[in-house]
Amino acid sequence: VIRWRRRSLTCQELVELVTDYTEGALPPAERRRFERHVAACAGCATYVEQMAAIPPLVRAAAQPSTGLPPEAELSLLHAFRSWHDERR
Ligand SMILES: [Zn+2]
Fold first, then answer.
1. Which runs of consecutive H residues, i.e. helices, occur in 1-88?
2. What residues sit around ligand 1, an ion, with C-beta below 5 angstroms?
């Protein structure tokens, strides 16, 4: 568990945590890992900025539990990842 907590986040993990981060729902240790990745990764920094700029109500409407099919969520993730890889 300690080893897991100490390794740095991958870009995909960051994408999965961004909603919790913008809502202040991450525990302090996770938050530090998140911020460390953002500080070192320009693509994720931009992504977090964009997510933080979306009003919470709009974000909530896009949650999978309220109707977005898993395939749509996956294609969003893939779109983000290819966008991200192009900028390395
Ligand atoms: Zn990243």
1. 2-6, 11-22, 28-40, 42-53, 56-61, 70-86
2. 11, 41, 44
Expressed in angstroms and rounded, the spacing between residue 11 Cα and the centre of ligand 1 is 4
Question: What digits encode the pLDDT tens for the residues 11-44?
Answer: 999 999 998 998 899 999 999 999 999 999 999 9
- Specify the residue for token string 């911020």: 35
Cα distances from 28 to residues 34, 42, 69, in angstroms, run 10, 22, 31
State the Cα–Cα distance between residues 46 and 84, nearest whole angstrom.
10
Q: What is the pTM of this model?
A: 0.57
Contacts of residue 38, Cβ cutoff 8 Å, sequence gap at least 6: 14, 44, 45, 48
How many Å lie between the centroid of ligand 1 and the Cα of residue 56?
Answer: 22
Q: How far apart are CA 61 and CA 45, in angstroms?
A: 23
